[in-house]
Structure formats: structure tokens, C-alpha cells
What we know:
- This protein is 12% helix and 43% strand.
- The chain is mainly beta.
- The radius of gyration is 17 Å and the shape is globular.
Amino acid sequence: MSGYAMKRFSVLLFAILCLGAPWLHAQAGDARPLAARVDARYNSMKSLRAEFTEIYSGNGVHRREGGTLLIKRPGKMRWDYTSPRKKLFVTSGNAAWFYVPGERQARKTPLKSLDDLRSPLRYLLGRTKLEKELHALSLAPDVAPVAGGSFVLRGVPVGMGNSVSQVLIEADNEGFMRRIAIVDLDGSTTEFRLANQQVNTPVRDAEFQFTPPAGVEVLQGKDVQP
Length: 226
């Protein structure tokens, strides 16, 4: 997970652009029931398993990574990066860990010290209300959805206006988030796409435990940025 992505990982948003859909000419106020649909989807879940793609573009850099995401309430996340190289980011209890297999160091930080709880996930963890998390929540009819039959929301994460210009969240009619794009003030964009989401499948607590391999040094700090 890129450092840019980690820092901005804290917010979600949707908008709609579905040809022929009644939302196409909707007013900003119509974003509320759509946001509530997404809230209901994730606030009712106990666990989530999905495939993810992370795309960063900005400052002359374009990077694409992917892997598997596991989430379990309360507060447990595991990002297994498999492409283009293996990496692990995991949170459980009061700590967050980042480790690259084969390296001699692992990084650990108190969960409360993470700037954004690595969240699009704060929302996926199922304890949120998008209307309260995003300033100026509205539909984004000017943003074309990646998937047909989706809507897109736009907003600015509360407390992040000094670093993030907007967040776009694409969701389908069932309330599943398909894409989350965080646009920084410098114009760089970190985008997460979710596919094959499986809700409430059995996920063991052991999946969120990390023990550094023998000989690996643990670096303590407030910033974990793969």
C-alpha cells in the first residue's frame, strides 16, 4: 500500500451516472438516500473479503498494485498485496503493522496514531454515516462511473480539507462500494477499486495477528507508510 494511499485512506464518497437513471438530473440533496444505502450495506456487516486494485497517479508517477482485502469488525483489516510484489498491512487490537516479506525490518504504530485509520475502510468497517463524514456531500454527475449501473458521490473528508480536495465514491444499487478515489490538493489521485466482495463469510481472528519473523527488527513510530 503506497504511502500516499495510506495518508489519504480516510474517506469515501459517491456519485451517480447511470444512463437513463432518474438520478442523472438529481439535486445535491438526493445524495443522502444513496449515501444511506451504502451506510446500511456496510454497517450491517460483520466481515468482508474482497479483491482490491490500488492506483496512484501524480507527480510524474503512475503505480498500480493489487491483492486481497479482509475486514472483520471491530477494527480489524488485512491488506495482502500480491502484485507487483508481496506486502502486508494489518491492523488488530491497538496496533498496525507493515511488512515486506524478506526484509529485515517491520514497522509498527499505535492504531490511534494513524492519520486516517487507513480508511476507505473506516467506512467499510461499518461504523459510519457518510453524511457526517463528508463535507458538502453531493452527487457527481460529471464523473463517469467505471461500472455500469453505479452512482458516484463527492465530498471532502471531515478534518482533511488541508490535504484532500475531494473524495469520490462509486457504489452500485445494492450499496457496495466499487471505487474510492482520493484527490489531493496537488492534484495527485489515489484510487481503490473493490471486486468480488463477499460479506459475512467466516474470517478467523488469526488472520489479523502478525508476529515478526525471527531476526526481523521492529521499528516503532507514528507513521506506517508502505
